[in-house]
Specification:
The structure holds 2 protein chains of 2 kinds. By secondary structure, chain A is mostly helical. Chain A has a domain at about 5-115 and about 140-220. Chain A is built from 11 helices and 2 strands; from the N terminus they run ααααββααααααα. The radius of gyration of chain A is 19 Å and the shape is globular. The N and C termini of chain A lie far apart (about 40 Å). By secondary structure, chain B is mainly α. Chain B has one domain: ABC transporter involved in vitamin B12 uptake, BtuC, CATH 1.10.3470. Chain B has 15 helices and 4 strands. Chain B has helices spanning about 5-25, 25-50, 60-75, 80-105, 110-130, 165-185, 190-200, 200-205, 210-235, 245-260, 265-280, 285-290, 295-310, 315-320, 325-330, and strands at about 140, 145-150, 155-160, 240. A two-stranded antiparallel sheet of chain B has the order 1-4. In chain B, a hairpin with a 4-residue loop joins strand 2 (about 145-150) and strand 3 (about 155-160). Chain B is globular, with a radius of gyration of 20 Å. Mean pLDDT of chain B is about 90; it is low at about 325-330. The chains are: A mainly alpha, B mainly alpha. Chains A and B meet through helix 4, helix 9 and helix 11 of A and helix 5, helix 10 and helix 13 of B.
């Protein structure tokens, strides 16, 4: 592999990893703070992608579509938390698995009713549609770089939110000790609604910006959810930074695995997870 | 076994199942055969999830592995011998359980869920992507294995499993046998220790039980029984594909167990019946017309309703109607 092909694979791995991070960060927040195992998280990714598809067609502009889509996602998150998730906080994890499995079926079928079962493409915004020439016949699309950039910005934003703001302090307090935080006057119910909406929106947003690259198709959520759980577990449950590191690790191992050992590429991710967990049974980072 | 309301109901259900092939249509007889095989699968998982407290999200690995063993050792167009292929399939599953169990049991909780998933997915991709596994198209098994009874003086193929009614009764007998076997296991000291581990592993260790060995034994037993279900399923459909190893399959069987009621063997079996029959009913166009195409929506809502409203799964429903059955359930 020459330098430029290597560079392209490196950038692809990074972009895939960072996108995974966006989905997984929402999952790890909801998991780490609210103790909810949310199998339906992948469906939120799918909802985001389909929203981007519909809204971009409606407004003719991906940027407006994403803004509208994010607003809708926040509302959807609050609604779902209020309707379903709220009732399962105190219950065994397995009932959360059962309910969110049901939700996957519901979302998948609603998608089929509303959008049909076809594969749709989403156009890249014009100002990001170029590509950077590397050699005579190799180039790299600007949009993929933009995805990586946006994801990095959001990772920084999450860091700021959790470490430097009052809301972040409340989130950390709620994660550390729910009762104590409540005794100190933090409205936990409201906080959980916010965290859940944030988690859902992160997944939906990832779906929106991924839509032009991956196109939108049935069952796209199912592919993402398992790999996101892998990221969360490798990183250490509840650790956003662990998720970032794990996502990039997985992005790289998957991308290079496909290039170097195509027959065994599917296994690399899971082999990585098994090795990490056997070495450190609680993931790379403990909960922050 | 004490004669309780529950065991009476179960006995009645068993009788009804036994006579069903004499009245039911072929399609439904085959459907119920499939359901009973899944019930074995679900009960085997319940031993881990409901009684040992280990949530396995890679249980389909054993199911699929046994099916693939049968597919691999079956002669191309002739029937294999059940007396050799079944023990072989079960031994492979037990060995795989031992190998992975030594590793996965080092973790616990959510991490255990994920490592079991990881090993199952590795197996999935091994069969899906490499030439050894037959690829994504799967492998056909053209003839069902034969139960030779030469040593009893019966030559030929006395129990013809190619006959769908015979196969049905065969699956029924095995389902009942697995139920009774697990019942015995759970009533033994070994089973009591498993339940103790689920409730409080540290205390069991403090009492001097080598909990790791108990968990490993439970994991192996569960995996081997899942292999039995997988072997039967491969036999029934005459086909194995990587999907039977995939996480969707592991997820479905886990949902069956939770749906029916964890920590209750007949609950797990009930979960399998309800899950598959509900799926079948909701997608029936004769009943629901065009809405049947979107059966997943109704299915999803039913599952959500059970999760939200029935804290102990479907077997908990009995307790809603009568107090008495609630006391009997654990008998």
């Amino acid at each position: 592999m020459d330098f430029y092909s290597f560079l392209i694979q490196l950038l692809n791995g990074l972009q895939y990893g960072l996108l995974l991070f966006l989905v997984a960060s929402g999952l790890t927040l909801v998991f780490g703070i609210m103790g909810i195992i949310n199998l339906a998280h992948g469906s939120f990714y799918m909802v985001g992608a389909y929203l981007a598809f519909s809204l971009a067609a409606l407004t003719g502009n991906l940027l407006t579509a994403v803004l509208l889509g994010v607003t809708l996602s926040v509302l959807l998150g609050m609604l779902l938390e209020w309707l379903f998730y709220r009732h399962l906080y105190a219950r065994d994890h397995l009932y959360q698995v059962l309910m969110t499995y049901g939700l996957i079926l519901v979302f998948e079928e609603l998608r089929s009713i509303l959008w049909g079962d076809d594969v749709h493409g989403v156009a890249v915004p014009v100002f990001l549609s170029g590509s950077i020439p590397l050699t005579d016949n190799l180039s790299y699309p600007v949009y993929r770089l933009a995805i990586s950039g946006i994801c990095l910005l959001l990772a920084g934003g999450l860091y700021w939110l959790i470490r430097k703001t009052r809301l972040g302090m409340m989130i950390r307090a709620g994660a550390a000790n729910r009762e104590m935080a409540q005794a100190l006057g933090i409205n936990i119910e409201w906080l959980y609604t916010v965290v859940f909406a944030l988690g859902l929106t992160l997944a939906a947003f990832a779906g929106m910006i991924a839509a032009p690259v991956s196109s939108v198709y049935p069952n796209m959520g199912g592919e993402v959810i398992i790999i996101s759980f892998v990221v969360v577990v490798i990183g250490g449950i509840g650790s956003v930074w662990g998720a970032l590191l794990a996502a990039i690790l997985i992005g790289m191992s998957d991308t290079f695995g496909k290039v170097l050992l195509p027959e065994y590429a599917g296994m690399t991710t899971y082999l990585l997870m098994a090795l990490v967990l056997l070495w450190r049974p609680e993931g790379l980072f403990r909960r922050t | 076994m004490r004669l309780t309301t529950t065991s009476l109901v179960l006995l009645l259900a068993l009788l009804m199942l036994a006579v069903f092939p004499f009245v039911g249509e072929k399609y439904y007889v085959q459907l119920i055969s499939k359901v009973m095989i899944m019930a074995i699968f679900a009960m085997s998982l319940d031993l881990l999830v409901g009684y040992t407290g280990l949530v396995n999200l890679g249980h389909a690995a054993f199911f699929g592995l046994a099916g693939y063993v049968l597919a691999k050792v079956s002669p191309q167009y002739e029937a294999a011998n059940l007396w050799t292929t079944l023990p072989l399939a079960l031994a492979v599953c037990a060995a795989f359980a031992l190998l992975t169990g030594l590793l996965v049991l080092r973790t616990s909780g959510v991490y255990f869920i994920m490592v079991t998933l990881a090993f199952a997915q590795m197996l999935f991709f091994l069969f899906h992507d490499t030439p050894f596994g037959g690829g994504s198209d799967g492998i056909y098994i053209y003839a069902k294995p034969e139960i030779k009874l030469d040593w009893l003086g019966m030559t030929g193929n006395p129990i013809n499993l190619e006959n769908f009614k015979v196969f049905y009764e065969f699956a029924l007998v095995l389902m009942a046998a697995v139920y009774l076997f697990l019942r015995r296991v759970l009533d033994s000291n070994f089973g009591r220790v498993l339940i103790g581990i689920k409730t409080n592993e540290q205390r069991m260790r403090a009492l001097g039980f080598p909990t790791f060995h108990y968990k490993l034994a439970s994991y192996m037993l569960s995996g081997t029984l899942a292999g039995l279900a997988g072997y039967l399923a491969a036999m029934q459909f005459g086909f194995v594909s990587p999907e039977i190893l995939g996480w969707h399959h592991s997820g479905s069987v886990l949902v069956m167990v939770i749906l029916g009621g964890m920590g209750s063997l007949h609950g797990a079996a009930l979960g399998a019946f309800v899950f598959i029959l509900l799926q079948e009913a909701l997608s029936n166009q004769a009943w629901f017309g065009p809405a049947a195409k979107h059966w997943q929506l109704a299915m999803g809502l039913c599952i959500i309703a059970v999760a939200l409203l029935l804290p102990r799964g479907l077997v908990g429903l009995a307790g809603v109607f009568s107090r008495k059955t609630r006391n009997d359930e654990d008998a």
